[in-house]
Structure formats: structure tokens, C-alpha cells
Design a protein that fits this description.
Chain lengths: 407, 171
């Protein structure tokens, strides 16, 4: 009996399977916090082509804003970026104040600055913690989230809610600082610093972590500018553009802080920039505290009842103020006809609001310029040609927030 | 004379008769240009050595229902320091708002994707929510809503309460 002939392998026949593969990542993928769908064409583990499909969290933010009064738009802005709701409140209110031409009292500005930086800390802590978690590192995530929880506890003391702050008002802020807040803040910061140290020890020079982050997700600087990318992504590439310095709003001009920059713009640089920004935010908050202590008793809000209705204890006890409050709630404030654009430095970059008023009590148009949207757009260019495993760290460092990107 | 007015003077010198109108309400320098010349004007604003509007910050539309032409396209431009620098923070040198009116029919404008890549997604969003088409856009499809969605929800005549059919899985 003759030995069976050897079966020729596919390689010998020249048709070893080499087709590219289509993969749909998301919309509900553990690493796509928020919902986003990434259609991928991969060759082995290399990304050949990708299409980022957003919109799964579109809730008609701008349409809703057009149907209520100016005040009623503020809670919607909370729901843009759940990590830094106060900053979205602030950007919206600043655009309305720009059109109204009103100036916030000094104490109000310091309180807003403090609240902004707390909000930024919460955002960066989530970004850094979640990035570790999604690469399989549970411990640093817990450090980050414990620190964020301390920040959110402070936020809760400030405005009564951990996440949906609804804190900043047109013409001021929602309420006076809760007694004991500043003491709590200093004790929380001691613990947050401990946590950041622990976080740093576990992550920053961890070989596995560095290998996943270094030299991934890069994009040439010219392309970043071309795509309108702002925030830590741009700073990591070496451009120290920070609106807090470039176009100082609130009281940032009087505060001493640094703008960290990277050099190569890879994910590792982005990570380091965010880590340093956290330290700088704490530095800013610490400079706000003595001023807020010193100015206790001074007004927080503009004194014009047509813009910011009177304090509750006056409303409940006096006729005139009761009427002002009633008119403020039922009719809303009158914003003069026209258009204005105001932008602030949010944790993801330039967060701007372009508003159009027709002079009635309702906004004619509220446009939110979301930093996430502009930052996600060039993601394809950051990843095509790279490895499948680069998607998660790159996506984490872009920090796309579905609510803000899709509105 | 404020810096916004200085900037407007400069822009008017550059664009000449293409500037139909301008204002600097709230300190925001704004020029209005004709639809047909909009792309060329924007390109010149970017390429001008002194103005150098290297970033398209935002693009949106406003629906002035009842006005003719009905829509406004609103471009927000910025000129920023585009080189890494050690010595100080990068500056936003100037900002400009450029508006152009788009009629209801034909509801189309020229795409500026070649000028700034950022326009790609912004134009898709305006197309999606306002129904303004962009000629020359490489990939004009809906971005926030799904393909089967009927209408353009940010138009003022789109009722907020309108419901769209719920789509099942496609496979």
C-alpha cells in the first residue's frame, strides 16, 4: 500500500488567509465609556481603516434649549460633560453675561474659579483612573476614583449634587458657600495628594503601562491644528495653549499657575500633562481659599433683580423681592437681541457657547462648541496604521464624553 | 478704537467688496460675506500672513425662519500660536466670526474641508441638523442622527415633539 501523498499546505498553494477583517467596536463596549461605534478594518492586529460613528447620545440639547427660558438651559448644560458639569454651566452663563454686558462681583468670580478647578480635577481624575482600568489596572483606578469621590463630596457641599451641579447662574452662582466647606476642602486635599502619590507610584513608571502609552496615538502638530484640536491633546504636542492664560477670564490673571506641555504628543505625554494639570488645579484652589475667606460677606451675585433674582430669605419676607422672584421665574430674564460667543478652557479643550437672542425671554439659538467633538474627529488619523491595542489608550486620552460630543 | 475694530479694518482691506456688513457687538468681530465668495474669503483669511486664521473653532447655522435668505452659516475662526514654545504660553492672537446667508432653495454652500480639516465633521453636523448641503464635501452623511431619520431637527419648523419610528436591528 502506497503512503498517502502529503497534503500541500495552503502556504504552498499561496493562499494563506490574508483577507482583512471587519470589526464593529461598540456602541456598547466597556472601553467606549459613553457610546460610540468604531468600525474597524484590521489586518491581523494592525488597523487598516476605521470610521468613528458618534451620535448615540444625541438628546437634542440645542433644540431643548430653544424651547425654555435662558435659566432653564442651565440644567441641560450639566448633562453635557458629566465629569465637569460646573464648567459647562460656567461657559453657558458667561456667554449670556457677555450679551447682557454684566460684571460679576469679585467674590463671585473667586468662587467660580474655585468651583471650576474642582470640576477640572474631577474630570482629570476620571480620565486618568479610567485609562488605567481599561488597560487592566484596577488598583490605580480605585485611587483615582476615591480622589474623585472626595472632589465630588466637596462639589456636593457646594451645590447639593455630586454630578449634575446646576451651580453657576447667570449673574452669579446658586448659593453662598456652605459653612465648613473650606475646612473640609483642606482636609480632603491632604488625602487627595496622598492618593495621587500612590497613583503615581503604581502607574507612571510601570513598564506595562509605559509600553502601552508611549509612541501611540500620535498626530503631527500641523494636523492637530488643522482639526481644531485644543486642550491637553494640543498641549501634549508642545503648544502651551490654555485659555486661562491666553484669554484670561474670571480671576485667572491674578493666580499663579503653570501650563504643562509635552513634546511628542503621544498618549504618554497626554497622560503626564493631565497629571500635572491636576497638581496645578490644586494649586489654584489653594490660592482661591484665602481670598474667599477674606471676602466673606461680600456679594456673590450681581445686584440687578432682572438678571439674578434676590436671595431666598428676602423673597420670603418682603413684597418687592417676592414680585421680582415671581417675574424672574415665570418670564425669565430678557437678554438683548444679538449674538455672542464665550469660551473657557474645559478639561478637554475649548468649550464655547455661541448664543443668539432675539430679545424675547427665550434663547433663539444655543450652540455648544464641544471640545470632544473636534478632538474625536481626527482619531482615525491617530490610529490607522497602528495596532488594535492602541485604540483603548488613545480613546481614553482623547477622553471623548458622549454627552458633550453628541449633545 | 478697540482691537475688534482694528481687526475688522484689516479684514475689510483684505476682502474688499466681499464684506457686505460687519459689527463688533460684545467685542466679537464679525463680518458677513456673500455665499458665493465665502469659501474664497475664508481661504484668504487663513492664508493671509498677518491674519493667519489657522484654526476653525466652530461652524454652525442659525435658522431665521421667515427671513429671506433663511439660514446663516456661522464660522468661528481663531489665530493661535502654532509652534511649540518654551518661553511663555501660546496666545490666541485674534478671533473672527464670519457669517454667510444661505437660501432655503438651493440649500447648499461650498465646503471648506480643503481649507480646514475640522470642517469635515462640523459640516456633517450642520447638514444633519439643518439640511444645508456642502458642495465638495468628501463624505457628506448624517453624523449625530441615523440615516433613516426624516427631516432636520434644528430647523425652526421641525416640531420638538415629533416622534420618529423606532428602528429594529438591521441584520
Amino acid at each position: 500500500m502506497a503512503a498517502p501523498a502529503a497534503i500541500p499546505s495552503r502556504r504552498q498553494k499561496g493562499d494563506l488567509h490574508t483577507e482583512t477583517q471587519l470589526i464593529s467596536m461598540g456602541p456598547s463596549h466597556p472601553a467606549t465609556h459613553g457610546t460610540v461605534k468604531i468600525m474597524l478594518e484590521i489586518d491581523g492586529e494592525q488597523i487598516v481603516e476605521m470610521d468613528v460613528q458618534i451620535g448615540y447620545l444625541h438628546r437634542g440639547f440645542e433644540k431643548e434649549c430653544e424651547s425654555g427660558t435662558w435659566y432653564q438651559a442651565i440644567p441641560y448644560t450639566d448633562r453635557l460633560n458629566y465629569n465637569s458639569a460646573i464648567l459647562a454651566n460656567l461657559a453657558f452663563c458667561m456667554s449670556v453675561e457677555k450679551l447682557l454686558g454684566c460684571e460679576i462681583p469679585r467674590r463671585g468670580q473667586w468662587v467660580r474659579t474655585l468651583a471650576s478647578e474642582l470640576s477640572r480635577m474631577g474630570d482629570h481624575l476620571t480620565r486618568l483612573g479610567a485609562a488605567c482600568l481599561e488597560l487592566g489596572a484596577m488598583t490605580p483606578f480605585l485611587y483615582g476614583i476615591e480622589a474623585r469621590e472626595l472632589v465630588w463630596d466637596l462639589q456636593e457641599m457646594l451645590c447639593g449634587a455630586r454630578v449634575t451641579s446646576n451651580y453657576v447662574r447667570i449673574g452669579g452662582v446658586q448659593r453662598e458657600i456652605t459653612p465648613g466647606f473650606l475646612e473640609r476642602l483642606s482636609s480632603s486635599f491632604v488625602r487627595i495628594e496622598e492618593l495621587l502619590r500612590d497613583f503615581d507610584r503604581v502607574v507612571t513608571s510601570n513598564r506595562i503601562f509605559v509600553d502601552r502609552f508611549r509612541d501611540t496615538g500620535m498626530l503631527p502638530l500641523a494636523k492637530l491644528i488643522d482639526y481644531g484640536v485644543t486642550g491637553p491633546l494640543l498641549r501634549a504636542a508642545g503648544v502651551p495653549l490654555d485659555l486661562r492664560k491666553a484669554e484670561p477670564y474670571l480671576v485667572y490673571e491674578e493666580i499663579d499657575f503653570d501650563v504643562p506641555v509635552g513634546s511628542t504628543g503621544d498618549n504618554y505625554d497626554r497622560f503626564l500633562v493631565c497629571q500635572e494639570e491636576l497638581v496645578q488645579s490644586m494649586r489654584i484652589v489653594r490660592q482661591c481659599v484665602p481670598v474667599i475667606e477674606k471676602t466673606a460677606g461680600e456679594p456673590l451675585n450681581v445686584a440687578d433683580p432682572r438678571i439674578r433674582w434676590p436671595a431666598k430669605e428676602r423673597v420670603f419676607g418682603r413684597m418687592e423681592e417676592l414680585i421680582q422672584q415671581f417675574k424672574g421665574v415665570t418670564e425669565g430674564i430678557r437678554v438683548p437681541a444679538g449674538e455672542a460667543y464665550a469660551a473657557i478652557e474645559s478639561p478637554n479643550g475649548e468649550l464655547g457657547f455661541y448664543i443668539v437672542s432675539d430679545g424675547t425671554g427665550k434663547p433663539y439659538k444655543v450652540r455648544c462648541r464641544p471640545p470632544s467633538f473636534a478632538n474625536v474627529a481626527p482619531m482615525r488619523h491617530m490610529l490607522v496604521g497602528g495596532m488594535l491595542a492602541d485604540i483603548v489608550p488613545t480613546f481614553d486620552m482623547i477622553n471623548m464624553i458622549g454627552g458633550e460630543c453628541d449633545r | 478704537m478697540s482691537s475688534a475694530d482694528d481687526l475688522l479694518e484689516h479684514v475689510k482691506r483684505l476682502l474688499g467688496s466681499d464684506v457686505l456688513d460687519s459689527h463688533s457687538q460684545c467685542g466679537d468681530a464679525t463680518v458677513i460675506v456673500p455665499l458665493g465668495a465665502a469659501r474664497e474669503c475664508l481661504r484668504r483669511l487663513k492664508l493671509d500672513a498677518e491674519l493667519a486664521f489657522n484654526v476653525l473653532i466652530d461652524l454652525t447655522a442659525v435658522d431665521h425662519l421667515g427671513r429671506e435668505p433663511r439660514f446663516d452659516l456661522v464660522y468661528h475662526l481663531a489665530s493661535i500660536d502654532a509652534v511649540p514654545r518654551e518661553d511663555r504660553t501660546a496666545a490666541v492672537h485674534r478671533r473672527l466670526r464670519v457669517k454667510t446667508a444661505v437660501p432655503e432653495s438651493p440649500c447648499a454652500a461650498d465646503s471648506v474641508c480643503e481649507v480646514w480639516s475640522a470642517a469635515n465633521w462640523f459640516e456633517r453636523e450642520v447638514f444633519d441638523l439643518y439640511g444645508i448641503e456642502f458642495r465638495g464635501h468628501p463624505d457628506l452623511r448624517r453624523i449625530l442622527l441615523y440615516d433613516e431619520f426624516k427631516g432636520h431637527p434644528l430647523r425652526k419648523d421641525y416640531p420638538k415633539e415629533r416622534r420618529q419610528p423606532l428602528l429594529g436591528p438591521r441584520n
